[in-house]
Amino acid sequence: MRDFILLAALVSVFPLILRAPVIGILTWIWITLMSPQREVYSFLAGFQLNFYFAVLTAIAWTFSKEKKIAPMNAITALVVLFGVWASITTYFALHYAFSYEIWDRTMKTLILTLAVMTIANTKMRIQAVLWVTILSLGYFGVKGGGFVLLTGGAHHVFGPENSMIEDNNALGLALVMILPLMEYLRTTSEKYWVRTCLMLAMGLTIVAIIGTYSRGALASLAVMGLFYAVKSRAGLIPLVLGGLVVLALPSLVPASWFERMSTINTYDQDSSFEGRVAAWRTSVNIAKERVTGGGFSSVNLDDVALAYPSPGSLTFGRAAHSIYFEVLGDHGFIGLVLFLMLLAAAWYNTAATLSFAKDRPELDWAAKLARMMQVSMIGFMTGGALLSMAYYDGFLIIVALTAALLLVVKKPLTQDALGRTVPVWRRPVEQDMRALAKPSGAH
To answer: Which pTM value belongs to this model?
Structure first.
């Protein structure tokens, strides 16, 4: 039954994509982040839906009046350069066939990143991308939080199978990343019921993060909370909400959860942390020996670990467990520099947005979003230091939105039909709404 409902939903979107490619991008994001085919159990289970919707969107985009080339900015340049360099490192990879599969997935993610930057050229479209991102990942936050409450936290919360957030640690970090964006939508939504639903979703998402049993996600949540307290001007509701969840922890989770979290204080004696350090050493060894690194996830392979030894390095293949060492081992020092420059460019975009929006009430929404993007990036970059999620689609979509947001706020002011001075983004928003409401065949 679930398969037929999902199929009906997907088929109903087809004509909308043909009329408005932006709908195709939103559907592509939804399928990429949520993997709805993993939530069904019949003929659509495991089906590669995102490929077909990407092709359909590309066709519709080709024949539309939409801009076809991503706007030139630092993010665009760095995404392209990183993609080119990753292609070179894959060609020279230690195990080409193994690295090629991850290269293929990463290239699709980079293409989606460029598409988001190109299509999200108005406030309405930026908001639409945010809503789809939040709904796609927030689904697992609400579902996971409910699971924890029903089971008393006796079991780990995991993401959808065969996805980048299947692992409990990866899911925990993805949920940490979207919390600030939920807060942005909550504070800027006009309807009371929307704000209430988002607040409840945030509470359940915090519970789900706790239920992942991920120490990295918990540490990331704490660091992000402190940064939010300094950066936010939206009130203390999220902090109070988090505090209430912490106070309720004894009734939410069993003693085993506290035992696992207590090992954060003795990380230097933890075998899993020692394994991470060993993987980092192996990644450094590979980068020192090879300009192009070992290729995607080469450190995961036993023979690679044995071929690049040093005191305390790996004796068998293991994931890098750090976005920074992951990129270093995969693509060498050049790849790491490009990756760090991409993060720096995203941060610059948010800082520049805050500068442009200063003392401009009509851009208050952009200032709030830029602050919450900074909080989100702090959470991801902190938690990512202990997880292999460098190429995660959800984070790269946020990176793309930082560029889109800056371009929107930098647009000069214009005048509406009544001669009132308004931001130029308001006019295309109205055009988008009229286009969607226009009957088929009308001129």
So the answer is: 0.85
